[in-house]
Amino acid sequence: MEKRSILFVHAHPDDEAIGTGATMARYAAEGAHVTLVTCTLGEEGEIHLPALAQLEAAQADQLGGYRLVELERACAALGVTDHRFLGGAGRYRDSGMMGTPANEHARAFWGADVDEAAAHLVAIMREVKPQVMVTYDANGFYGHPDHIQAHRVAMRAAELAGEDAPKKIYWGATPLSVLKAGIDALGESTDNPFAGITNADDFPFGTPDHEIAASIDGNDHHEAKVAALHAHASQIPTTSWLFSIAGNFGTEFMGVEFFTLAAGTRGPGTGLYGWEQDLFAGLD
C-alpha cells in the first residue's frame, strides 16, 4: 500500500491551525505525508500585539514576514514538516476584505489568474501525490476573498492534475449542532467576530448535520492545536474566542474537526449519519 498523503490548501497563516490543526496533527503523528500549502503571507491581518503595530500594511508593511515565522512555529507544533507557499513566499498577497484597497493590489490573491495559480498547486500534487485534499467550500467558509479564491484554485488544480489529482476532496465545515452548543462559550469571550449572534442559523457558516461526511477525532492532539494557535500570537490574542472554546469545552470542541465530501466516494462511517472517522476511508 502506498504511503498516505494528504494536502491542505489554506489562504493565510493561522487558517491551518484554526480549521484543521487537530486533523493535521493526527495524520502527521500517524505517519502520513502531510503537505500544507498557504496561498498568502497574511499581510493584511489585524495585529493584536501592540509592540508589532508598526508592521501593519499601512506602516512598514512587514507583517507578512513576521507571520511566516509564526507559521513555521505553528507547523512545528503540529508536527507538519512539509509546508509551502503557493508559487513561493510573497507570490500572492493577502487581499484583505471585499471592497478594500488591498483587494486592488497588483499582487492580491483575489485578482490572481486562477489557472496560473492552479498550475503551481498542480506541480505540488504531482510531487507529493495526495490521495486526499482539504480546502474551503465555495464561500470560503465565511466569505473572505482569499478563502474563496483558495477554493477556486484548489478545485481547478484538481481538474488539471489528471491522474495525480486527489481521489477525495473535502471542505472544512461546522455542524449546526456544534454551533448551537458553542454559542454560550462564544458569548463569554472577547475578540468574538460573531458578537451578538444568539441563533446558530444566523452564523455566516454552519452545515446541517446530515450533510457532514467526516468527523475527525484529533482529541489526542488537542494540545498541539492549541500550541499552534498560540504560535499565531500576532493574530490570535490570549482572550480570543478560540481559547474561550478551548477552556470551556476542551477537546470536545478543539480536538474534533468536521468536513463535507466534495469529490470522491464516501467511505464507511458510523453513527446516525454515517460520518467517516478517517479522511482516507474507502481508499486503503
UniProtKB/TrEMBL annotation:
Catalysed reactions, semicolon-separated:
1D-myo-inositol 2-acetamido-2-deoxy-alpha-D-glucopyranoside + H2O = 1D-myo-inositol 2-amino-2-deoxy-alpha-D-glucopyranoside + acetate
What's one GO MF term for it?
N-acetylglucosaminylinositol deacetylase activity
Annotated positions binding Zn(2+): 12, 15, 147
**Keywords, A to Z?**
Hydrolase, Metal-binding, Zinc
Asked if the record carries the keyword Hydrolase, the reply is yes
Cofactor remark from the record: Binds 1 zinc ion per subunit.
| A biological process term (GO) from this entry | mycothiol biosynthetic process
Q: Is Hydrolase a UniProt keyword of this protein?
A: yes
Source superkingdom:
Bacteria
Entry EC number(s): 3.5.1.103
Q: Which cofactor does it need?
A: Zn(2+)
Function of this protein?
Answer: Catalyzes the deacetylation of 1D-myo-inositol 2-acetamido-2-deoxy-alpha-D-glucopyranoside (GlcNAc-Ins) in the mycothiol biosynthesis pathway.
Protein family according to the UniProt entry: Belongs to the MshB deacetylase family.
Question: Could you tell me what this protein is called?
Answer: 1D-myo-inositol 2-acetamido-2-deoxy-alpha-D-glucopyranoside deacetylase
